[in-house]
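Quick illustration for those who missed Monday's session on complexes.
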Amino acid sequence: MALIDWSNDLGTKINSIDAQHKKLISLINNLHEAMKIGAGKAVTGQVIDELLDYTVTHFSNEEKLMTAHGYPGYAGHKKEHDEFTQKVKKLDEDYKAGKLAITIEIMRFLKDWLTTHIKGTDQKYSPFLLGKGVS
Ligand SMILES: [Fe+2]
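Prediction with fe (ii) ion bound:
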């Protein structure tokens, strides 16, 4: 069973964003899978790298959309992104340094952060960006 299943309550009504969120979910699910099967350090490290890279890419896409259209909630939204990016970077570093193992608590943190962020912070920009013709 996957850690996170896509469901309509995660939708933003913006197709390009939903596709990116689905990819992020699948990367978190991959990390969960690596944890469950006890994958080695090289494989797990690579999965964390992919998650970090794609998190940065996706946040940057959202931030560009928000700034391009003058979204008023940008600053607070960006702050959430920055905090999460720092956490994933730290996770990556600590894992590679052998200071941390991927546990179910870490997986729950990633899942809860992403789903809470999408349902709260991301869904808030949806009517604004849709009104600007973003799809
Ligand atoms: Fe976001």
